[in-house]
Amino acid sequence: MLGKIIVIFIFIGNLSAQTNSLSVNYSLQIGFDEGFSKNDILKDYYALAQKGAQAIKFKLEANKIVSYFTMVDLIKNEEIDFAISFSEASTSYFIDIEKGKKIKYESGFFGEYMIEYQETTNWKLENETKQIGDYLCYKATSEQVVVNPKGTFKHPIVAWYCPSIPFNFGPKGYDGLPGLVLELQVRNITWGATKIELSNESIIIDKPSKGKLITEEEFKKIVASPPMFGN
Predict the structure, then answer these.
(1) Most buried by CB count within 10 Å: which residue of 10, 53, 201, 204?
(2) Which superkingdom heads the taxonomic lineage of this protein's source (predicted)?
(3) How would residue 77 be classed by pLDDT, with cut points 50, 70 and 90?
């Protein structure tokens, strides 16, 4: 038994030393939500979003320092538009851990913006594992705090990360875990890895360059006071 443990340890160590970049594809699933499903106005739109989510794909590219997570371009329809709206799928995330920079790229009704933010996730590492494809993953949990006119709400965050893939990144800008996040669930929305490509070459990842560079507080003010059209 001890010999097997040593072999596994050496394999993981070699993987850590040899892997300098990666490319990961993620799928999207919008699960059941009691609030939306019982809302007479939103339930039909939510059902369309659940169907549209099946067509949405994402890509995470990363080296040891920088990551970029974005939705893959696709031909849109009504179902996909609702899925993007409910899941905020069109937002891209750039992280540079060496420079301490995080940027969200937003493009839509309010215009094009590169939004600097400093949000961090307070993870709790759980004593629970599961197999995702060929990879043994470990569970971590946290909370998403949402404040709106109806009050303050806390939604569960569950991440399954893989220590044998030595990258501290994941989908939707979530980072800071001791391994790549292969599955992430925030409230009722799940991002799951479908393809992982590892490379010993270090790729260059450029930060977004389209849109006006602003802070998150500035963007919140823009959203709170949308542009008016006409008189």
Answers:
(1) 53
(2) Bacteria
(3) very high
- Which residues in 165-197 are b (16+ Cβ under 10 Å) and which e? bbbbbbbbbbbbbebbbbbbbbbbbbbbbeebe
> Radius of gyration over alpha carbons of the chain, in Å?
19
Q: Which long-range contacts (CB under 8 A, 24 or more apart) does 105-110 make?
A: 105/70, 105/208, 105/210, 105/211, 106/211, 106/219, 107/210, 107/211, 109/226, 110/219, 110/222, 110/223, 110/226, 110/227
Mean local confidence (pLDDT), 23-44:
90
CA distance 108 to 92: 12
Report the pLDDT averaged over residues 9-30.
73
Please report, as a single letter, which amino acid is at residue 31: G
Number of Cβ within 10 Å of residue 145's Cβ equals: 9
Q: How many residues does the chain have?
A: 231
Sign of CA dihedral 184, 134, 60, 194: negative
Give the whole-angstrom CA distance, residue 104 versus residue 117. Answer: 7
The pLDDT value recorded for residue 40 is: 85
Is pLDDT at 104 greater than 70 in this prediction? yes
| The two structure tokens encoding residue 30 | 């919008």
Residue 50 has pLDDT above 50, yes or no: yes
Domain residue ranges of the chain, discontinuous segments joined by +: 20-224
Contact between 27 and 57 under an 8 Å Cβ cutoff? The reply is yes
